[in-house]
Amino acid sequence: MLFFTQCFGAVLDLIHLRFQHYKAKRVFSAAGQLVCVVNPTHSLKYAASRCAAVQASTEQGILPPCHHHGEAVHDPQLVPCTCPLFSCPWEGHLEVVVSHLRQTHHINILQGAEIVFLATDMHLPAPTDWIIMHSCLGHQFLLVLRKQEKYEGHPQFFATMMLIGTPTQANNFTYRLELNRNQRRLKWEATPRSILECVDSVISDGDCLVLNTSLAQLFSDNGSLAIGIAITTSKVHSSEAEM
Amino acid sequence: MLFFTQCFGAVLDLIHLRFQHYKAKRVFSAAGQLVCVVNPTHSLKYAASRCAAVQASTEQGILPPCHHHGEAVHDPQLVPCTCPLFSCPWEGHLEVVVSHLRQTHHINILQGAEIVFLATDMHLPAPTDWIIMHSCLGHQFLLVLRKQEKYEGHPQFFATMMLIGTPTQANNFTYRLELNRNQRRLKWEATPRSILECVDSVISDGDCLVLNTSLAQLFSDNGSLAIGIAITTSKVHSSEAEM
Questions:
Q1: Would the CB atoms of B27 and A243 count as touching at under 8 Å?
Q2: Residue A194 and residue A204 in contact, taking contact as beta carbons nearer than 8 Å
Q3: What ipTM does this complex have?
Q4: What residues in chain B have their Cβ under 8 A from chain A's Cβ atoms?
Q5: A59-106 residue pLDDT tens
Q6: Where does the signal sequence lie (chains A, B) (predicted)?
Q7: Exposure string for A53-87, b = 16+ CB within 10 A, e = fewer
Q8: In order of start, what are the domains of chain A with their CATH numbers?
Q9: Which of A35, A170, A241, B241 could staple A116 via S-S, CB 3.0–4.6 A?
């Protein structure tokens, strides 16, 4: 009996995901984009202790381990780096971080310059991460959506794009995140950050797309948030010149 | 001597404003938009007491005075409304709210569907308001930028556009606010709210453009924030259909 109940639950979940996928596809349909359903990947259970460590080392004038900007190394693939996920102690070279993320953290990798990231279960308590890798224009990018309580009792959503490469390589690209629902539209456009910088510091600086819970709810549909993502090569370094 | 010092100060202020105006114009130059320097208009010194009054009346099931949606009145100009500014006890009809804002609060009115709002002195402590009226497409709109501490000790900036008209009239328009600086771009697009709804409730709901202080600083230049504003008539009610 329990087996049948579980099977029925699984079928219902599949129908629900399929329905969400269909709805997100309808919203972003004109662009014919790939829709990727992203479940929360990461409980950040050691977040507080790593935060404290980063804080302490910064106060002592020591760079935290993820700040190996290392442009002096000639082959960017051999720059040492840490895993961008908060609670993971892994360290290695840039060339193997993608396989580490896929194998250890089971993070999906998607192809295409324009995709739709559909984050499910937005109601889950902070801290929670939704992460995918995105392969386009000859590089791999990491999209991180994080629910975090920067101000106690007030969770916010932070979304940023990191290049799995050096800061110099990152400067060649521009990414755009777009939310569109309920007669409201929000677009954020910036240069991706290098994975050699901390995701955590990008988020704590607030230099990314930031959503209060109320706005995230307005853009959500049935507990899922669809974010349109586009990556292009930067033609000019100053986007002001484009306006 | 004091007179000369004051004169010199005034000339320096003028040069500074002119320089900011020139810089904002350069950023938004391609569109040939009108740049309007907006000084803080409003100290909100009675904010706490009015907040408390609104809170109390809502808890007692009484609508606060600014919630006269009043679509039953046939001539929209005769709908009763209150002054949208926080500390002002004025009440009157929609048809005279523009002259009240101009005469009592000295709020500028600008012409044109696309303008640049250049808010000065962003460093001033919360609560602070920057307000202009904007006349286009046969209607008057009110742009409110407010610095407010929704979470104690963490001021945020909230920007919204209100139509000086009824909610039904407001549904015919779409407004866009755009920030563009330091290789970052943020766009917010929505239907304006009617001035018959509280500006305060729009801001407390967070259903507007919200900036944390760190992001506001990234978009600011020398303490001033340039916001590109565009108003259009809504062709379709659901903006999802446009994508």
A1: yes
A2: no
A3: 0.76
A4: 26-31, 150-151, 154, 174, 180-181, 183-191, 205-207, 210, 212-215, 218, 228, 237-240, 243
A5: 343 334 444 444 455 666 677 888 877 678 888 888 898 999 899 888
A6: none
A7: ebeeeeeeeeebbbbbebeeeeebeebebbbbbbe
A8: 32-63+109-234 (2.60.210.10)
A9: A35
